[in-house]
Amino acid sequence: MEVTRTNFPQLLPKIKEAISKCDFIVIDCELTGLNTINNINAFDTQKQYYEKVRRNSKDFLIIQYGLCMFRYDKEKEMYKQQGYNFYIFQNSPNKYVPDHRFLCQSSSIDFLATSGFDFNKLFREGISFLNSSEEEKYRESLSEAQKMRTNKMLQNTYTPDRSGQSINQSMTVEEKDLVNKIFKEIHDFIASDEEEHVLPKCNAYIRRLVYQQAEVTLLNKANLETRTLENKERIFVVTRIRTQDEKEAANREAIKKEEEELQQSIGFSTVIKAIVESGKLLVGHNMCLDLLHTINQFLIPLPFEYEEFKEIAHYSFPKILDTKYMSSTAPLKNLIDSTVVAHLLSTIQREPFKIPTIEIEENAEGYNLEHSKQHEAGYDAYITGLSFLAMWNYLDSLEEKPKKNCFPNFSLLEPYLNRLFLMRLQDYPYINLGGADVVPSRDHIVYLSFPKSWKQNDIFQLFSPFGNIFVAWINDHSAFVALQRRDQISIVLSTLSQSETYTIMSYSQRQAQLAADIITTPSPCQRKRAANNINSSIKKRKTSVGEVTVEKDFKMASRPITEKSKETPAKKRLQNTFEESVDWE
Fold first, then answer.
1. Where's the Poly(A)-specific ribonuclease RNA-binding domain (predicted)?
2. Helix, strand, or coil here: 502?
C-alpha cells in the first residue's frame, strides 16, 4: 500500500498494530545514491569497510521505504502479510526542522526514473523524519520559544527594545516608506471594528523593525504576529488585544498546534521506533546500506567508531537476518546460481525450494507475484520475505523430522542471525553485529607500490614464478596481491624486496603503516572532534530506546587514508580461482 504525507497519520495506528502482531518484518530501501562500490577494496577489514561506507554514503537519503509484516496463522497453518511503500522526504513546516542538503547520484536517479519512480509524489507528498539529535534540538528550541511566549503573555506592558533606533537610521527610503505604510494600517485597524488585519508583505528585516518600533509606540493597543500558511507563505498580522483568559486559551491552542507539527516532523521515524521497540526479527536483502541509512536517518547519526556502530545497531535491532548472506552460505549457496534478489525469487519458485501458502491480511493491503512491481521498495521487501521463507522451509526439510511448516523453528536461523553481508570482500564475508568479527589469515597477501605506468600484466609478470595471483587495485600506483600458493609468501617477500622500481611489504606491515599514519596525521575533522570531547571520559549516546554508554577513555577517532579501487578486469581463470561475481542487489 502506498503511504504518503496525506494518509500517513490515518494509517500509522494500523501500521504500529501490524508491527506488534507480526512474527517478522522485512525491509527494503531506495536511495538517492550509493557511491561506495568504487572505494571498496577486496582486502579491506570490516572496520575499514564500515568507515568507507559511512563516509561515502552519509550524504545520500532514503527516499522510499518498503515494509512488509509477516504473521503465521496457526489455525489456518499459513502466513499472512501486509505491505507498505512509504515515500520519504523531509518537509520544513517551521524553523525548527533542519533544511537538509543531500546528494544524488545520476546513475541511481536514472535507475529509479526508468523503474517508474514518482519523484513528484516524493517531493510533494513525502513523509518527514527526524533522528534523535534533530528531535532533541527541535524540542529544546520549541520549549524555549514557548517559555518566552508565556512570559510575554503574563506581562501587562511591553519592554521597549531600543536597539531598533540605530537600525532605523540605516533604512533606505523605500524601507522607511514601507514601515510607515504598515504603521498607518495598524493605526487604521485600531480605529476600526476588525478582529484582525493582514499587513502588507515584507521581509524578515522589515518585520523586525516593525516589532521593535511597535514595542515603543503601540504599548497594549494591538498584537503583532507572523503566521505560516499551508503553502508555507508567511503573513504579517495585527490582532486585537486579548483578555488574560483569551491569551491563555490561545497559548494552549498554539502549544497543541506546535505539538502536532512536531509529530508531523518526526513522521516516519515513529515507524522505525516502533520496530525498535518491538524487538522483532528484521529481514532484508544485502541490507548493510539499508541498515546504516535507517540508523542514521531515523534514529541516531552514525558514529565514527566501528565498534560503537555495532553496539548501536545490535541494541536497536537485536535480531537481523540478511538473505544475501543466507543465500551465499552453505548449504543454500550450492543450490543458488545468483543471489541478486530478482534471480533469487526465480530460484526459490523451483525445486527443491517451495514457497509456503501466504495470504494478504484481512482488511489490509499487500503484494502478490501476479502484479510485479519490481524496484518498488514495498514489493522488493515482499519478495525478500518470500525468499526468506522458502529458504527457511528448505533448511527445515533437511532435518531428521521435517515439519509441514518451518515456523517456529528459529533455531535453524541461528547460523545466519546478525550477520551483514559485505559486498566484494574476499575473505571477510560479513559483519557480526552480535559478537566478535571473523578474522581470517591474510598472511598470503602483500602490498605492492609501483609506477603509475604499470598495467595488470606487469604485476602478473612480476609474480609469474610464484603461481597464480589475485590483484586488488587500490589506486593507479598500488595494489594488494594475493598468492594462490600461500607457502610462497616468504620467498616472494625475500626475492622481490630488492628493487628501486617498486616496493613490497606484507599485508600486516601495510596495516600497521596505515594505523601509524592515522595517529600521526589526524584530519581537521578529527582535531575538531578532539577539541569538543577532550573532557569526556565516558560517552553516552541517546537513542530512541534509551542510552548506549561507551565506557572508555576519550581517544581520537580514527579515519583511514582513502584508497580508491581501480576498476581493472582480471583474467577469467583468476576470477574463478579467487572471486565470486556479485553485485549490489
1. 435-512
2. coil
Nearest 5°: the CA angle 72, 74, 75 is: 130
CA distance linking residue 343 with residue 426, whole number of Å:
22
Tell me the pTM.
Answer: 0.80
Give the span between the Cα atoms of 474 and 567, in whole angstroms.
9
Interhelix angle for 306-316 vs 46-57, to 10°?
A: 80
Peptide bond into 560 cis (omega under 30): no
What grid cell was written down for 430? 560479513
What is the torsional sign of CA 218, 219, 220, 223?
Answer: positive
Q: CA angle, 571 as apex, 568 and 572 as ends, to 5°?
A: 120
Distances (CA, A) of 107 to 40, 52, 103, 112, 190: 18, 20, 12, 9, 60
Give CA–CA dist 139/146, Å, rounded. Answer: 10
- To 5 degrees, how large is the angle CA 363–CA 117–CA 2? 15
Residue type, 519: I
Q: Would you state the cell numbers that stand for residue 118, as one nine-digit string?
A: 514518482
Q: In terms of Cα–Cα distance, which of 284, 276, 273, 298 is closest to 61? A: 298
Q: What angle do CA 443, 449, 451 make, to 5 degrees?
A: 155
Query: What string of H, E and C letters represents the secondary structure of 541-557?
Result: EEECCEEEEEECCCCCC
Q: Residue 442 forms beta bridges with which residues?
A: none
Helix orientation angle between 204-217 and 173-191, rounded to the nearest 10 degrees = 50
The region, left, alpha or beta by phi > 0 then psi within -120 to 50, assigned to residue 286 is: left
Per DSSP, the three-state class of 425 is: coil
Q: What separation in angstroms does the CA of 443 have from each of 112, 199, 439?
A: 43, 76, 12
* Amino acid at residue number 86: F
Q: Could you list the pLDDT tens digit for every one of the 585 residues in the chain?
A: 999 999 999 999 999 999 999 999 999 999 999 876 568 899 999 999 999 999 887 899 999 999 999 999 999 999 999 999 999 999 876 788 888 889 999 999 999 999 999 999 999 999 999 999 999 999 999 999 888 888 877 765 444 444 444 455 578 888 899 999 999 999 999 889 898 899 999 888 898 888 888 877 776 678 888 887 777 788 899 988 777 887 788 888 889 998 999 999 999 999 999 999 999 999 999 999 999 999 999 999 999 999 999 999 999 999 999 999 999 999 999 999 999 999 999 999 999 999 999 999 999 999 999 999 989 999 999 999 999 999 999 999 998 777 767 777 788 999 999 999 999 898 888 999 999 999 899 999 999 999 999 999 999 999 999 999 999 999 999 999 999 999 999 999 999 998 999 999 999 999 999 888 776 655 545 544 544 443 443 344 444 334 443 333 323 233 333 444 444 443 333 343 333 334 445
Grid coordinates given for 355: 514457497
